[in-house]
Amino acid sequence: MLSYRHGFHAGNHADVLKHLVQSLVIEYLTRKDKPIRYIDTHSATGGYSLEDDFAKKTAEWKEGIGKIWQKPDLPEALSDYLEAVSKFNNNNQKLKLYPGSPSIAANLLREQDRLSLFELHPADSRQLARNFEHDRRVRVSQGDGFAGLKSLLPPLEKRVLILIDPPYEVKDDYNTVIKSLKEAFKRFAVGVYAVWYPRLDSEHSRRFGHKLEKCGAQRWLHVTLDVRGNNTAGMFGSGMFVVNPPWLLEQQLKETLPQLTSMLSETPDAGFTLKTHGMD
Ligand code: SAM
User: Does this entry carry the keyword Heme (predicted)?
Assistant: First the structure.
């Protein structure tokens, strides 16, 4: 079953949290010249029009990137993320396009870095390949990203960011993420693994944050951002679980989350949590 299309959701509040964390990790990893490998297990297409039928149908971006775009006095930590979005829009002030995670990574990475992108949906995978056909750093594979990840570990590079961002339209995705992480740690324990998940009023979603924290990682950071109270319908928030996070990430998020949450909030009971383990 492949009904999920990220075009309906691109640039929403969950993308803002995910792509902010992604850009902060990449900024940190690129402080040294050594090459980086970026692995995106669930890439989608890598870029979206905010004016096409997908985006118009839901207009979710208006409640996400739309609330922070071109706003004054934003926290410093948002600058790389927003610069990547701006470049994707050819530095136009009007927001017409939104970059997916592969484009944000490609934008922030350098000549010596490599990107391995997986996408299962045939049409989205073709679009992804077209979007990166002139970028020699990028390899696009159509197929299962969990199997793809396994096939790449351990990579040649020591500095590696793995983004795991399934749609969770099949409940199995929750278990598969945990299983994949456990297998991946055995093959490559030092990678930075960033897992995104939705916060929903469902048993699977409620328990998932706890399962991630117990998945065997030694050092992790866990952030959630809810734009509405947690007993409301639909996706009221999202979480990012980062294994082996850069040591600066906690401080950067501490400084950013209060203002970001207040800008993205839909009801007065919006909120965030930030937790770390093994970081001392
Ligand atoms: N990471 C993207 C971003 O931030 O721009 C969004 C990814 S979207 C949430 C999830 C994508 O995973 C969808 O495009 C879906 O087709 C794809 N997908 C679903 N199951 C997959 C699998 N087993 N392996 C790879 N891709 C899969």
Answer: no
Does residue 141 lie in a domain region?
A: yes
Does 177 fall in a domain? Answer: yes
Asked if residue 156 is part of any domain, the answer here is yes
Give residue-wise pLDDT tens across range 223-272: 999 999 887 789 999 999 999 999 999 999 999 999 999 999 999 999 99
Which residue lies with its CA nearest to atom 14 of ligand 1?
44
Q: Is 145 annotated as a binding residue?
A: yes
Answer yes or no: is the ipTM higher than 0.85: yes
* Residue 1 within a domain: no
CA 199–ligand 1 middle distance (angstroms) = 17
Q: Could you tell me the distance, in angstroms and rounded to a whole number, from the CA of residue 17 to the centre of ligand 1?
A: 17
Contact 101, 18 (CB under 8 A): yes
CA of 143 to the centre of ligand 1 (A): 10
Is residue 101 a known part of a binding site? Answer: yes
Residue 3 has pLDDT above 80, yes or no: no
Domain with residue 70: its CATH number is: 3.40.50.150
Q: Judge contact between 159 and 32, C-beta under 8 A.
A: yes
pLDDT digits (tens, 9 = 90+) for 128-159: 999 999 999 999 999 999 999 999 999 999 99
| Helix (H) or strand (E) segment spanning residue 37 | strand 36-40
Query: CA 149 to CA 132: how far, in whole Å?
Result: 20
Residue 10: give the domain boundaries. 6-277
Strand extents, DSSP E, 173-270: 192-199, 220-226, 237-243
pLDDT of residue 203: 87
At 1 the pLDDT is 56
Number of domains present in the structure of the chain: 1
Q: Is 44 in the pocket of ligand 1 (CB under 6 A)?
A: yes
